[in-house]
From TrEMBL:
Protein biosynthesis keyword on record: no
Name assigned to this protein: Sigma-54-dependent Fis family transcriptional regulator
Pfam family, one: AAA_lid_14
Domain Sigma-54 factor interaction, residue spans: 148-377
Keywords: ATP-binding, Nucleotide-binding, Phosphoprotein
Residue numbers of 4-aspartylphosphate PTMs: 54
GO biological processes: phosphorelay signal transduction system; regulation of DNA-templated transcription
PROSITE patterns named in the record: RESPONSE_REGULATORY, SIGMA54_INTERACT_2, SIGMA54_INTERACT_4
One Gene Ontology term of the molecular function aspect: ATP binding
């Protein structure tokens, strides 16, 4: 049951207030504090739906209680009452954050109305906060395949960055070694963004031949080159109103880089073999395992494109730097693999986890996932340190 705190040094008044309000305001428990200091101690211990406080009190005045309580718990709702009221005092209380100010002798109807309105305000604020939290939680839901797992400081730093940048349209360059989870970061940013209802289109720049990368990104028209038997939409156009993820951007040819730079500058693309320009509204995320400064100095990557892509840069460290996450990752992969195979989840005993934590994971999380699958197939239940020694060569 929610509670209302009455802070009043005159017992007769606090008793009357409690009696009248408890008849009018149902489903609330009333707590009495006899001075401001006692009131503050109550607020320290628990949350109140409403605080009704006198101003002139011993030990701690109502105005000081208001200031200190709102510093401690800014969402607390106050209705102030005083027999020494003047306009300046009322204005000061409202400036400090009070919901209302009522002078003595108290108009009971005015008090009841004020208290009901204050409680409705508090209830609406609480519901709004709940909806905001629920909405944020929904946005954070990512396909299990792309779920980020762990509680290491390194991962928390990444998650904090994602929380800060996701709601913007800023371009993000995600760096780090192969298999560390750069793709997961990209999916988390998209899932938490306002574009989450739109498409997320992925392009592995390293897997597409340089002569076809333009067609892949910007599309082509029929007959524009040998094999172009029909018009084709490019990835930028397919990602309209959503996100495009350019993975391994460091492997893109200089010719394609120039075209991507133009697309970012003008928010337009031209299909290969066409003079037509297509306007696109796309957020660009990119990833690379390369040292981009070294690539720029070697003339393999355009510096102007790098600066366009790296408005925000997120570094994903190797598993070697977050080994405390290995246990959670093993349990996570074991559950996913069991679901995929339709089997019960296998347990890894503590010594098996310790053995895995001692390895040097050059292939990072991707390698760990493969090893977990191997141990589930070949090992016992629970998977033991002996299984790790037998089936993992490091």
């Amino acid at each position: 049951m929610q509670k209302i705190l009455i802070v009043e040094d005159e017992k007769a008044i606090s008793g009357v207030l409690q009696s009248i309000l408890s008849d009018e305001i149902k489903d609330y428990e009333f707590i009495i504090a006899e001075d401001g200091l006692e009131g503050y101690k109550n607020i320290e211990k628990e949350d109140f739906a409403l605080v009704i406080s006198d101003i002139k009190m011993p030990k701690l005045s109502g105005t000081e209680l208001l200031k200190q309580a709102l510093q401690l718990k800014p969402d607390t709702t106050f209705v102030m009452i005083s027999g020494h009221a003047d306009i300046d005092m009322a204005v000061d209380c409202l400036k400090e954050g009070a919901y209302d100010f009522i002078s003595k002798p108290i108009d009971i109807n005015r008090l009841i109305t004020s208290v009901k309105n204050a409680l409705n305000k508090e209830k609406l604020a609480s519901e709004n906060k709940h909806l905001q939290t629920e909405n944020k939680t929904l946005k954070k839901k990512v396909n299990k395949k792309y779920q980020m797992v762990g509680e290491s400081p390194a991962l928390k730093k990444i998650q904090d960055m994602i929380d800060k940048v996701a709601s913007s349209d800023a371009r993000v360059l995600i760096t780090g070694p192969n298999g560390a989870g750069k793709e997961l970061v990209a999916h988390a940013i998209h899932a938490q963004s306002d574009r989450s209802k739109g498409p997320m289109i992925e392009v592995n720049c390293a897997a597409i031949p340089s002569e076809l990368i333009e067609s892949e990104l910007f599309g082509h028209v029929k007959g524009s080159f040998t094999g172009a038997i029909k018009d084709k939409q490019g990835k930028f156009e397919l990602a309209n109103n959503g996100t495009i993820f350019l993975d391994e951007i460091g492997d893109m040819s200089l010719v394609a880089q120039a075209k991507v730079l133009r697309a970012l500058q003008e928010s337009k693309v031209s299909p290969v073999g066409s003079d037509k320009e297509i306007k696109v509204d796309v957020r660009v995320l990119a990833a690379t395992n390369k040292n981009m400064q070294a690539e720029i100095e070697a003339g393999r990557f355009r510096e102007d494109l790098y600066h366009r892509l790296s408005v925000i840069e997120i570094y994903v460290p190797p598993l070697e730097e977050r080994k405390e996450d290995i246990q959670m990752l093993v349990e996570h992969f074991a559950k996913i693999i069991a679901d995929e195979q339709g089997n019960a989840t296998k347990v890894f005993d503590p010594e098996a986890i310790k053995s895995l934590q001692n390895f040097n994971w050059t292939g990072n999380i991707r390698e760990l996932r493969n090893i977990v699958e191997r141990l589930i197939i070949l090992g016992g239940n629970p998977v033991s340190a002996e299984d790790v020694a037998a089936f993992v060569r490091k």
